[in-house]
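Sequence in, structure out. Go.
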Amino acid sequence: MSQSVIKVNALYKKYKDADFFSVDNLNLSIEENEIFGLLGPNGAGKTTLISVLCGLIKPTSGTFTINGLSYDKNATLIKEIIGVVPQEYALYPTLTACENLRYFGSMYGLKGKVLHRKVDEALEHLGLVKFANKRIETFSGGMKRRVNLIAGILHQPKILFLDEPTVGVDVQSKNVIIDYLKELNANGTTIIYTSHHLSEAQDFCTKIAIIDRGQIYAEGTPKSLIENTPNAHNLEDVFISLTGKELRDDV
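Output:
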């Protein structure tokens, strides 16, 4: 029987001077080894929720645990078992791919031969070996996205947070990234993923929560969400049915 690796209870987050809660009385349970998609329009609260769960910002109220641990007492332990791959590139442009990855790996406590081996293996896996000693500023978007992913998984996290991991990349890079993530998941990593690519999410995720205005509107497997939404043929139909067609421009 699967265990919950993330439990969220009555979570609220309101930014200073904001009119509304970005996360509003949200409850959520994510089981071990899921590929869990958090999907929603711009400004729905997805990135805020992930930022809270990663310990980057504090909630206004409510509680949550990561692998049974709370940040109040176990922040260091939690940071050792999670990986975070942000939407923005978290890389040093004037350093090479290898230099970047060895730096980030060392921050997770990896060193020596183990660090070098993990970097080499990941670069090989994601088709970047021949570019290992090239500076990041010379890389295409898809190449940067792949290095960005490696930086978050070198320490083999138990739980991996991904914010738009395939945004702005070509089809080939997207396929390589998704295949690699599926392999990580098969080896025991629970994945929490946000994306605006609904067809990708439909194929990739084992479970999905659709979030809007800081609340979860629906949750289930892609198949069950489609079957339980009238006239829905795919996840995009479900998404529009729940969140509407109104534009969500955000500044």
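Check: The CA atoms of residues 6 and 66 lie 5 Å apart. The chain has a mean pLDDT of 92.
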